[in-house]
Amino acid sequence: MRGIASPVTDVRRKVFTEVARMSYEGEVNESYATQMRRMPFRIVPGQQGVHQQNIFLERAIVSERVRLAMGLALRPLDQQVSTGEGIEHSIIADKYYDPPLINIIKFACNSCPEKMVKVSHFCQACLAHPCQQVCPKKAISFKNNMSHIDQSLCIKCGLCIQACPYNAIVKTERPCAMACGMNAIHSDELGRADIDYSKCVSCGMCLVSCPFGAISDKGQIFQLIQSIKRGDRVYALIAPAFVNQFPSLNNTAKLRAAMQQLGFEDVVEVAIGADLCTVDEAKDFLEEVPAKKRFMATSCCPSWSMMAKTLFPELAGNISMAMTPMVFTARMMKKADPEARMCFVGPCAAKKLEASRRHVRSDVDFVLTFEELAGMFEAKGVDFTHLDDMETEDTMVYASSAGRGFAASGGVAKAVADQIHKWYPDKEVKIASAQGLAECRKLLTMAKLGKYDGYLLEGMGCPGGCIAGAGTLTDPRKTAAVLAKYTAQADLKDPEESAFISNIHFLKDDDQQ
């Protein structure tokens, strides 16, 4: 459901807006804890629920969303805990969220059934009984003049679905579990969705797939604004997937003006870091494959790399050691302004996980999704139509088309391969890519078996790439078209000609210390 406006996205936006507004306005007449208690009544006013029949349930769900948006934990269901419990630990500008990042609000969960094949009322009880004939487990019988599937015998192979001439047999699956490429979602003792955090890589696909809005990630909106209000110089590091997220911000000058109204010091395009990553990974590939490694995999997507290291630990060494574009950009900016703070703004829930890692924390202080950014714009009342449309000289104009192309599936591998071809025109670089963690798992399984020896592999946790991440606002297909135009318009075509290319060496030196 990515890019589709719905009651779920409406509630999420209202929560982000109210949390941002509270942080901007501060404790004026009421404490933060009191404002948090009142927030569900502003979001769900009146005496009748907007999206739920029970207004008290709807407000309870909103209360938990408010807590998660502020980086707080869900409240236990068997204890009386106030909405503002623990807020005193979050009224600071230096707090990372406490794990886990992805959370299920249990009383918002519909307890959807797990994967099953079942017969609908369209069954005609036909004489041929093709469903029964093709079933390898003899799980289908006829009762009351209708086909019946014994779930204890069914192996969900789908042969009966294909055989039924009336399309009367369907396969159903819990949407969040179906979207999870790590098989990390199962049912708890009450039939509600539950996450196995030993498997979860925080891609956020369950979040955008739950039609009941029962799954949400934690945020840092509140802490980010506290940092801005404290007087910190906070730079917004904008991922290349920003194109088409806010159509009114149709050029980088407008985007910069809008972000400065929120209190950011300036805006830097993460595609600059992608340029550095391109050159670094191209050099790694030439040095490592096939002399030291059978193949090399890109490192940019944190869900992909974490999945690889979790499920294929023996292949962990094949993941490129190059820093991600986010870290490259943040570290470069910290070198230029050591006292400043860095906020990555992008499409990705997993970037929050990456930024919380010990070796990245000193570089990236905050991570904001485009969805959360929209809430900040609304809270601050930024009017896009009155922004200065004059083109300005800033660092954003120096990113190459290759770096900007990282936002779409296949873009990373293409950039690296093109760079190698530039250096060695006769060298063949074989590429294989996958999008969505289920397909990524298949890709690495085949690589483990030796099918992709000598290849450059690219994996993207989100189907479509970063432009289809869990924190995006618009239809990924439309964004892909806008991104193609945006990359083509880049003045710089060669990442190696970036004005920041010399930063690679000392940034990598820091990483190795």
Largest sheet: 4 strands, parallel
Strand order of the largest sheet: 10-9-12-13
Q: N- to C-terminal separation?
A: 43 Å
Helix/sheet category = alpha/beta
Assess the beta-strand content as a share of residues.
5-15%
What value does the average pLDDT take?
91
Summarize the structure in words.
The protein is globular, with a radius of gyration of 25 Å. Strand 14 (430-435), helix 17 and strand 15 form a beta-alpha-beta unit. The strands form six sheets. It has a four-stranded parallel β-sheet, sandwiched between helices. The chain has 513 residues and is of the alpha/beta class. It has helices at 7-25, 32-43, 55-69, 130-134, 159-163, 175-179, 205-209, 221-230, 252-261, 271-288, 302-311, 325-336, 350-355, 370-380, 401-404, 411-423, 437-448, 476-488, 503-512; strands at residues 102-104, 116-119, 140-143, 146-149, 169-172, 185-187, 193-195, 215-217, 234-238, 266-269, 296-297, 341-346, 366-369, 430-435, 455-460. The longest helix has 19 residues, at 7-25. It has 19 helices and 15 strands. The model is unreliable at 390-395 (pLDDT under 50).
Attribute tags:
513 residues, alpha/beta, four-stranded parallel beta sheet, three-stranded parallel beta sheet, 19 helices, 38% helix, 12% strand, globular
